[in-house]
Automatic annotation (TrEMBL):
Name this polypeptide is given: Aspartate/ornithine carbamoyltransferase Asp/Orn-binding domain-containing protein
Keyword Transferase: yes
UniProt keyword Transferase present: yes
Alphabetized InterPro entries for the sequence: Asp/Orn_carbamoylTrfase_sf (IPR036901), Asp_carbamoyltransf_Asp/Orn-bd (IPR006131)
Alphabetical GO biological process terms: amino acid metabolic process
Aspartate/ornithine carbamoyltransferase Asp/Orn-binding domain ranges (all copies): 14-79
GO molecular function annotations of the record: amino acid binding; carboxyl- or carbamoyltransferase activity
Entry-linked Gene3D superfamilies: Aspartate/ornithine carbamoyltransferase
């Protein structure tokens, strides 16, 4: 899940920089994964905090495709469940 900037005033994290350093996905961290690894995120991404700006341009980051296809995929799943009688 994305970090919610609107809730940062409550002081749950010392700073967004610290959050990014400890939990963020940097290009260096990504390079330690399998070359076949993909990055997905439900969006919206807090670029530079959750995922580095450099990494967002990587061909294995599928976030734009994931968001673009999200409604169609959910509709297909619901249709399949409905035709199988799972939703009744």
């Amino acid at each position: 899940l994305r970090i919610q900037n609107e809730r940062q005033q409550q002081g749950y994290l010392p700073s967004l920089d610290e959050y990014s350093r400890v939990w963020g996905l940097s290009h260096d961290r990504f390079n330690k994964l399998s070359p076949h690894a993909f990055v997905m995120h439900p969006g919206p991404v807090n670029e530079g905090i959750e995922i580095s700006s450099e990494l967002m341009r990587n061909k294995n980051v599928l976030i734009e495709k994931q968001v673009a296809n999200g409604v169609a995929v959910r509709m297909a799943i619901l249709h399949k469940f409905a035709t199988l009688g799972i939703l009744t």
